[in-house]
Structure formats: structure tokens, C-alpha cells
Design a protein that fits this description.
Blueprint: H1 9-22, E1 54-58, E2 65-67, H2 76-81
Antiparallel strand pairs: 1-2
Length: about 80
């Protein structure tokens, strides 16, 4: 996290990668490593799926549609303030 939280963080992170490439320490212990994910990626079919549907239900006050069973944060205040 160190270099990515400062003003020129992108440049700093890039320079760290350049130094690791130049010294031969890319993807080696002691250098910059690219570990495997702790979980396997989900298997995918050969054809693209149909995706997901949105708007199956709406917020009760302003009628905003849901996306993946969640409402936009803009709805939160009016849902809290409206009785019922």
C-alpha cells in the first residue's frame, strides 16, 4: 500500500516494477510476485450467458429499480424518512 497512497503513487509503483524487471526479481521470492488466487475462477461455458435481469422490484417511495437485489444509495434517506 505504501506507494499507492501518495501524490505520485502510480509513478512510484511503476518504478518499483521497473527496478524488479531490471534486476531479474520479477515473480521471484524477494521481488515482486504474482501469487495465485486463493479460490479457483468460476467455470464458464463456451457461449455468453443471458446476463442478469434488473428492475424485478422497485423502491416504494420513488420507484427506483433494483439491480442484483440492491437499490441505489440515493433511495436510502427517503426510505428511512417515509413511515411504513
Amino acid at each position: 500500500m505504501g506507494t499507492s497512497t501518495v501524490e505520485f503513487g502510480t509513478l512510484g509503483s511503476w518504478l518499483v516494477d521497473v527496478v524488479n524487471v531490471l534486476t531479474g526479481n520479477l515473480d521471484r521470492p524477494g521481488g515482486a510476485m504474482f501469487p495465485l488466487s486463493p479460490v479457483a475462477p468460476a467455470p464458464r461455458g463456451h457461449k455468453p450467458g443471458r446476463g442478469f435481469s434488473t428492475g424485478r422490484w422497485r423502491s416504494r417511495v420513488s420507484g427506483h429499480p433494483e439491480v442484483l437485489s440492491e437499490l441505489p444509495v440515493a433511495v436510502l434517506a427517503e426510505e428511512i424518512e417515509t413511515p411504513g
